Amino acid sequence: MALDVYEPCPCGSGKKLKFCCPQIADDMERVSRLIENNQSRQALHLLEQLDKKHPKNPWICTSRSLVLLESGEPGTARDVLAQVLQAHPDHDLAIVLYATAMVQADGLDLAKKAIHRAFQRSAKKFPSMVGGLAGAMAAVYQSRGHMLAAREHLALAMRFVPDQERQDIFVRLLEFDHEASIPYPLRSVHPLPALNGNEAFLTESKKGLKYAFVGCWNTAADIFEKLAQSQPSAELWHAVGLCRAWDGDEPAAAAALHQAAKIYPETGLAVECETLAQLLDWNGTSHRIYRHELTGEVSSLSRLLTQLDQSERLFRVELPPAGTYEGRLPAAVYQVLDRQRSEMAAPSDVSLENMVHVLGMVTLEDRDAETQEPALITVEAMVGPKFDETVSLLKQVAADLVDWDNTSEEAGWIPAESATMSWQWAWPTRTPPLVRRRLQAARWQQIAGEEWFNIALAALDGRTPRQAAGDPSSAVALTAAAYVFDSQCLRGGYELDLDALLASLGLSPLPPMSVTPETSLKSFTPLQWLRLPLEQLSDEQLSAVVNRALLVHHDRFLYRVLKLAVSRPQCLTGLDQARIYQTLAELCRSHERRAETYQWIQAGRTHASTLPNSFERVWSWDLRELMTRLEDPHDPELRPLVDRIIQYYGPKLPQLRMALADMLDAAGLDPNWVNGGLVTGSTAAVSPRGSGLWTPETAAAAPSSAAGSGSLWLPGQ
Ligand SMILES: [Zn+2]
Question: How many angstroms does the Cα of residue 18 sit away from the middle of ligand 1?
């Protein structure tokens, strides 16, 4: 493409090319042709020559740095750009390229100043590149576990990027808010509070807000903090806290938010700030329980497997069938039990009293033919007696078949305060999902009913919730601790009765938000959503709440919201009704309200029968009912349902019998039910699972989906 000499010069001077850099135009055209033809080496060579003849020309230097970045040489690109910025400090493109090169060469922390300069200077002309920087920072913060910073950088990227790129960032935001492993008080929006004061105050605070708007949160926080020191207010400390958190400085954020919580006149905001502060404190706590792993090289995998299988303290975990799990499956996984395998109860007899605990995990990897990596064994457990016992047992069982590493390595940690909520059981093979769920819930009830009250919490100055109850000066911290616990219960799949918990501490629930039909709910915080007076909302508002609740998936709130929505036909018409009935059925199923589960399945089926393509839709509800009933092999309705399904769908769906037999088999039932009890040639060949019948939720059919395992595949859970 020939350059137009009457267009602005690509060097960024603002002059026309003809009157600016015409002497390099021909050579630069050659450079772009070389780049188009993927001849970046030749392009670089030519650019270096040009650079010598015309030093610090921004057109040459930015082109050269782009090629260097593409070729994976960010360090050289950074140095080239540093030179051009010396001569042209306000060059928009050089500024954003310099920040990009610095992030890649030196990492986010060293690059932060350069990035903030790009946020301030280059966003107008290069929105896509600047938005990309913000998006990349979000990913780094998320990987570090700095969730508030991650989310706010995504929101910032949304503000920067041009319209056509907004969709991708929007999807990342939705995924973030939906991510069940992130405590829910950290998901959703946290708006800066309104800051009021005299004229001098407003001039300064507006400056802070401006910095905050373009993502320079450390500068904004400095401004707010200076103001707060001369005229302290809850709002200012709140703003300092949020800005520090968005900047990734969690200890400083927590300190400011604690401060705001102490002086906020409104209890709701005080508790919100304190809840955030407590969650941030956990991220930075030094009271941790570490998980360590010890690895060793295996000389003969088959002999080792034989020996491990023979150990009474090891329980081999059933792995998912080949092809159903993405990535390479280990050769074998074992749980290290706290007692003999023979002491495991039968699936029908397991109880809280006789559950066998898992001390640690053992993973075996086969030799990798491609990389020549030898076969490996990895032993993992919480540091302390569990780890010591696990390692000494394995060293004894594996004897001379393993050459162990000298030292173990860190493989994660949990805050010591949450140790009670972290346990692992060894389930007897084929324990029905229903039994697992009931037992998990029973364990959570023990914690929520008693044990949590006796955990000494740093947030309560080392006192237990029971000790802090009744002390009015601890009311905010204690309420916040209850919310933090609520978020842990949610992650563990347990539906906590928060109001009852608060009442048993002598605390009242937070008051409902005041809402008029005109109130926009967009800027509500995670805790404010939970406080909405649902019955008072307009249909339009309730629809917005339904979508938000489905996204964040706070079980207790979601259930209340959906139940109200189905009672308002006006509200339902604009919503995905099938999804609402499915979610209600799913919520009731996972919290063991089985009778109600079937009511919602029936409601969904009735609704489906009124729609086009009702055959598939109704079938998917029948299948859902079957999967749910299969969880309880003693359900008297199960056999009649199987018979009905065979009679009705059998003739239309030829693979059905086979697939049903597999499901029955997987649930520990007699696969011959599908033939009305008759053994035939076709059922004899039925066994290998997954005969390929399409189901809307094949995942739910897997017997391994116990509550509390989250999105992680946990061997044996
Ligand atoms: Zn020029």
Answer: 9
At 70, the amino acid letter reads E
Q: DSSP string spanning 389-435?
A: HHHHHHHHHHGGGEEE-SS-EEEEEEEGGGGGG---EEPPTT--HHH
Q: How far apart are CA 256 and CA 262, in angstroms?
A: 10
From the CA atom positions of the chain, what is the Rg in Å?
31
Q: Where are the alpha helices (DSSP H) in 54-146?
A: 58-70, 74-87, 92-106, 108-121, 127-144
Q: How far is the CA of 57 from the centre of ligand 1 (A)?
A: 8
Tokens of 220: 């904004």
Closest C-alpha among 662, 703, 701, 652 to residue 682: 662
- The answer to whether the CB of 352 falls within 8 A of the CB of 446 is yes
**Among the residues of 314-420, which ranges form H helices?**
385-398
Q: How far is the CA of 121 from the centre of ligand 1 (A)?
A: 20
Q: Which residues contact 122 (CB under 8 A, 6 or more apart)?
A: 92, 93, 95, 96, 129, 130
Distance CA 692, CA 658 (A): 10
Q: How far is the CA of 67 from the centre of ligand 1 (A)?
A: 19
How far apart are alpha carbons 663 and 701 in whole angstroms? Answer: 7
Residues 395-436 have pLDDT tens digits of: 999 988 999 999 999 999 999 999 999 899 999 988 888 899
Q: Give the CA diameter of the chain.
A: 93
Residue 656 binned pLDDT confidence (cut-offs 50, 70, 90): confident
Q: Which two tokens stand for residue 544?
A: 């917005």
Query: What is the Å distance from ligand 1's center to 71 Cα?
Result: 25
In angstroms, rounded to a whole number, what is the distance separating the alpha carbons of residues 439 and 633? 16
Query: Any idea how long the chain is?
Result: 717
Close Cβ partners of 485 (under 8 Å, ≥ 6 residues apart): 448, 452, 496, 501
CA distance 407 to 267: 50
pLDDT, tens only, 282-336 = 998 989 999 999 999 999 999 999 999 999 999 999 888 777 667 778 999 999 9
Q: How far is the CA of 21 from the centre of ligand 1 (A)?
A: 4
Yes or no: say if 374 and 297 are a contact pair by the CB < 8 Å rule.
yes
d(CA 186, CA 145): 11
Distance (Å) from CA 235 to ligand 1 centroid: 49
| CA 14 to centroid of ligand 1, rounded, Å | 8
Which residues 6+ apart lie within 8 Å of 120 measured at CB?
214, 216
* Ligand 1 center to 45 CA (angstroms): 21
